[in-house]
Amino acid sequence: MPGWLTGFGAQVVAGLIVGVILGLIARGQGGADGGSWLAGLLTGVGDAYVQLLKVMIPPLVVAAVVTSVANLRKVTGAARLAVSTLIWFAVTAFFSVLAGLLVGTVMKPGLGASVDAASAAAPSTTGSWTAFLKGIVPQNILGLGVGTSHGSPTLSFSVLQLLVISLVIGVAAVKTGKAAEPFLGFMESFLSVVQTVLWWVIRLAPIGTAALIGHAVADYGWGALGSLGKFVLAIYIGLALVMGVIYPVVLKVTGLPVRGFYRRVWPVTSLGFVTRSSMGVMPVTQRVTERSMGVPTEYASFAVPLGATTKMDGCAAVYPAVAALFVAQFYDIPLTVTHYLLIIFVSVIGSAATAGTAGATVMLTLTLSTLGLPLSGVGLLLAIEPIVDMGRTAVNVTGQSLVATVVAKRAGIWSKETFDAARDGMVDRAPSMADVADTAGSADAGSDADAAGSATAAAPRAGARVAG
């Protein structure tokens, strides 16, 4: 059988198909509310898989970032890489929000919506422009937070805070010098162990995918599509424009193969769709970005965690644009050119302002409050939140891998050998900056040797002509 039929991506597709079938069976049994044992099983297995992925995030971020900082000291232009990453985050967000505004303006999803106005309610959590400052300052050395869920205390972590803590520790270790070499050696070994365990978890993705999509089919509020179907359709058309037009143009301009990129990023996109969590998929995103896309570990371990907190073309660009227009149209509030410019500004800059906070709802509240639109409009859209969140997250995680790959290609640190070798699945080893440098050096040496050989061969002929 060809490799593409037995590879990891094909297994994820099989999981999606099986999950849809199981979800339809569970829905026929009444779903979770109807006491379906199958619906309960799908929910339990899916939640357990997402939790397994999230467990791996803190050790992966800490070990990968500390190790990368130590390795980046050998690389010139590390600051330029960071700036390029932020610029491409902004560029793709800009065109994504334009896609959302185009769809919302043409389709006018808020006009004629039959959703009950009584369901309008302001959310308990809102976005603010100071959230970034609050989110980036660690509450403790572990980046942990404590909350409550159903009356019980729960622990949570902030990837943004972990990223800051790890960067500081990595820089401090480099500045310490020889005394910190045992520590850096331990972190490299620890990262290898974490990546091995992570691969075991990732290999369970087809099972997790089946359970999560089955849960979505069985229990999500599909009945709300009757009153909000036009809005859901507008969101997915906007997301399709990003995935089918904007991203391919970026890839073409950069010189990356479009089909090859989507073929390799498929496990990330599909897991984002079923898990609805950029954080949960982050370990998979990083592994695919390194071992399928050919992005060196030193750079990917910085760009992917940063992207998981601030790079959200689905949640922070397309969705707030369409949703803001929906709310304005529903309440018959006219918007001016200034309002449209503010939507673009919030979508491009606001994702950083709300970094480390949860969900697209926070971005929507930031957008509505900036425009002066009623926050109660958020409540109108909560019924279909899980349905649109699947598509939003799929775009989010795809964009996170895309930007890292694009920046690596433009910076000359992209490993084409890894990309080509990963045609039918991830390779066994992630490329490093040293690998890319060695490959470039070998190519230069080969070119020099060819040039020298040509010159040597040409010399006698030239001499003969002179003698004649």
Widest sheet: strand ordering = 1-2
Report the sheet with the most strands, covering strand number, pairing sense and barrel closure. 2 strands, antiparallel
- Spatial separation of the terminal alpha carbons: 64 Å
The CATH class is Mainly Alpha
Order of helices and strands: HHHHHHEEHHHHHHHHHHHHH
Number of domains: 1
Q: Uncertain runs with pLDDT below 50, 5 residues or more?
A: 443-468
* Class by SSE composition: mainly alpha
Mean pLDDT over the residues: 80
Strand content: under 5%
**Helix tally?**
19
Shape: globular
What is the rounded Rg?
Answer: 25 Å
Q: What is the share of helical residues?
A: over 70%
Q: Name the CATH superfamily assignment.
A: Sodium:dicarboxylate symporter
GO biological process, one term: dicarboxylic acid transport
Main location: membrane
Transmembrane segments: 7-28, 48-69, 81-103, 155-174, 231-254, 337-356, 362-384
InterPro entries: Na-dicarboxylate_symporter (IPR001991), Na:dicarbo_symporter_sf (IPR036458)
